[in-house]
Amino acid sequence: MTDGTPISRQRLLVAAFGVAVPLAVTPLRPWRLLVRIEGRGSIPQRFVALMADRDTARAVGLEYLQAPKAERSANALATALAHDLQYQRHDVRNATDAELRGLISVRITRDFEEERIVELRGWILSLTEARLCGLAAVTPARS
């Protein structure tokens, strides 16, 4: 305190609680969730919607789905992609499209650095690119 008197234990605990509650609730962001649900598709559809050329991605994705270790369902592919992107401390469910594009770009770069690559008919793709294309192949188009 500014007048030199010590702060009471009760007042310190109340102040600490006042700081702790907002910090504890922030990761839940219930207000953010309500704002972002409307107009959004499922996670697989959101990933696919980011692609500039879905037809080409679908063709590449069909090749990836033939790979021995490839995930073959939309859920498995989206889960693997979301897991890889969340290492960056971002929740893909609440990310904007611009944030998702940025996260994907960083992950693709890291895939090449970490040699997480896939060869499809002589083309070298990052694992993230291959999974995104696989997702385009198994995810129905939004109507």
How is this structure best described in words?
The protein has a domain at 41-138. The N and C termini lie far apart (62 Å). The protein is built from 7 helices and 2 strands; from the N terminus they run H-H-H-H-H-H-E-E-H. A two-stranded antiparallel ribbon has the order 1-2. Helices cover 59% and strands 6% of the residues. The protein has 143 residues and is mainly α. Helix 4 crosses helix 7 (127-138) and helix 5 runs antiparallel to helix 7. The longest helix has 17 residues, at 9-25.
| Beta-strand content bin | 5-15%
Radius of gyration, whole Å? 22 Å
Helix segment tally = 7
Number of strands: 2
Low-confidence runs (pLDDT<50, min 5 residues)?
25-40
Q: How would you characterize the largest beta sheet?
A: 2 strands, antiparallel
Could you provide a short overview of the structure?
By secondary structure, this protein is mainly α.
Tags for this model:
7 helices, 143 residues, two-stranded antiparallel ribbon, mainly alpha, elongated
How do the helices and strands line up, and which of them pair or pack?
Elements lengths: L8 H17 L4 H8 L5 H7 L4 H11 L9 H13 L10 H17 L3 E4 L2 E4 H12 L5
Antiparallel strand pairs: 1-2
Helix pairs in contact: 3-7, 4-7, 5-7
